[in-house]
Amino acid sequence: MDIKQLKYFMAIADVQSFSEASKRLYVSQPTLSKSMKNLEEKLGVELFCLVGKKVQVTDYGKRLYQKAQLLIEQYDALYNEIRDLTTLQTGVIRIGIPPIIGTCVFPGLIDGFLQKYPGVELAIDQHGAKNIQERVYRGKLDLGLTIRPVMADAFDVIDVVSDKNVLIVPPNHPLAGRTSVRYQELESEKFIFLGDEYMLTSNVVAGCREAGFEPRTLLQVTQWDFAVQLVKLNMGISVLPRRILAMYPEPGVVQIQLDHSSSAWDVVMVTQKGQYQSFATQAFMKYIQENAGTQQ
User: What is the mean pLDDT of residues 108-112?
Assistant: First the structure.
């Protein structure tokens, strides 16, 4: 019994037909029939029975199907792992990058990586940091870029870059002349937040609650530049990463430092804790570690 026989067996069981399975497997029907006859002889049991025009698995076949499915998954995982160790000519890395982090930090890094490894495909998923952490945790993404805090017991975490979040207000705001503010001074303000899936929003809300008040939410938006324009119109205040504001200066708003630990904008790379990472993913992680400091 070998992996090929097990894959043949499962294909027949799935479609309930030797002829249809042979088409899907691109092998002749006599070859398929001979392989299954040999498998039944080795096991000493019948795996199939004919019910009308359909081929159905016997009780022995049902038990074999359950075990074969797991064996094939393990075999494929092992094969891919070994293959990845020998070549980086091809590969797909599923990466989650929040929009602001993607804009601020990664265009140059992605360009550099793909120049070095042109055969690797990057499948980029852009959502808020909370969503990305959840998708990495559930194995939907190979790695994610997010900001702290993260669940340290769920992820292997690598620091990428550090910067600051700043408060933005219109030029005629009473705080516009200040160099820094504390959350306690913002209790009466109307906040313009990014969506709940953004860690930045959670961090700011936590800072307000720590200061003893629940922030007054005027609006929640999905785009940082929309928030900037609303602040410019004197509709409220917002907190955004300093780096994105430096890339796209807006003279209609004033930046003020936040005197609180939530002003930290610490970008990290997360992967499932203790899980095997493909050679392509490892190469990407190493490249980011070595080059992220140049993207200032």
Answer: 91
